[in-house]
Write a structure and sequence with these properties.
Elements: E1 7-10, H1 20-29, E2 35-40, H2 52-58, E3 66-71, H3 79-85, E4 89-92, H4 100-109, E5 113-118, E6 136-140, H5 155-169, E7 174-178, H6 183-192, E8 196-199, H7 201-204, H8 211-219
The chain binds D-xylitol-5-phosphate and zinc ion.
């Protein structure tokens, strides 16, 4: 067991899209720490989801931090719209680029927290010269694009290496893990050093009556 406080960020990708406002309010009441919003463009990833207008409409359903995961390419043209829509944290993939350092500066210039997302095949070295500027690193434990995939074991070593790098820096950088999180992989990701867990399937399964139990169980 880790003494580290674990935050749970339900991914609304697994919510009922016909009732998104109520779903966000329900996970807020059920104890979600952050609201994770998966933005996909059918170009960087093979799926199409949520734009800034939807984020803006959802904003009044929860005062908790909106954790916006951009799976879009290019990144910069969409950042101001999501910032204005009410995102609190904005994360992007360096491969989507083209200029990661510039994107981090842009997000911060808009008063938002900045995160970089590492795909399963993306090495830690991709953010070696960026880590100190980040508020968040998100490790993908599935390939981005869809909920409900199986956790990729090899990412545990990356999480552990990142935890060591963050602790060596001594900065309060969040280490978030996204994809295939269930009761077992949650425990292993936290043991490896994660402090924020994204979970779609595991939070939304069983319907609204289960959300509080599901979130509490993941928190461990
Ligand atoms: C995948 C998304 C994840 C996903 C998680 O591209 O970034 O947030 O929805 O879903 P589960 O928890 O079902 O793996
Ligand atoms: Zn995500």
């Amino acid at each position: 067991m880790s003494a580290r406080a674990v935050r749970i960020a339900p991914s609304i990708l697994s919510a009922d899209f016909a009732a998104l406002g109520q779903e966000v309010a329900a996970i807020d009441r059920a104890g979600a720490d952050w609201i994770h919003v998966d933005v996909m463009d059918n170009h960087f990833v093979p799926n199409l989801t949520i734009g800034p207008m939807v984020v803006k409409a959802l904003r009044r359903h929860s005062a908790k931090p909106f954790d916006v995961h951009l799976m879009v390419s290019p990144v910069d043209p969409l950042v101001p719209a999501f910032a204005e829509a009410g995102a609190d944290l904005i994360s992007f993939h360096p491969e989507a680029g083209p200029h990661s350092h510039r994107t981090v500066q842009l997000i911060k210039s808009l008063g938002k927290k900045a995160g970089v997302v590492l795909n399963p095949a993306t090495p830690l070295a991709a953010i070696e010269h960026l880590l100190a500027d980040l508020d968040l690193v998100l490790v993908m434990s599935v390939n981005p694009g869809f909920g409900g995939q199986a956790f990729i074991e090899s990412q545990l070593a990356k999480i552990a290496a990142l935890r060591a790098a963050i602790d060596a820096l001594g900065k309060p950088i969040h280490l978030e893990v996204d994809g295939g999180i269930n009761l077992e992989t949650a425990r292993r990701a936290v043991a490896a050093g994660a402090d924020v867990l994204v979970a779609g399937t595991a939070v939304f399964s069983g319907g609204p009556d289960r959300y509080a139990n599901n979130i509490a169980a993941l928190r461990g």
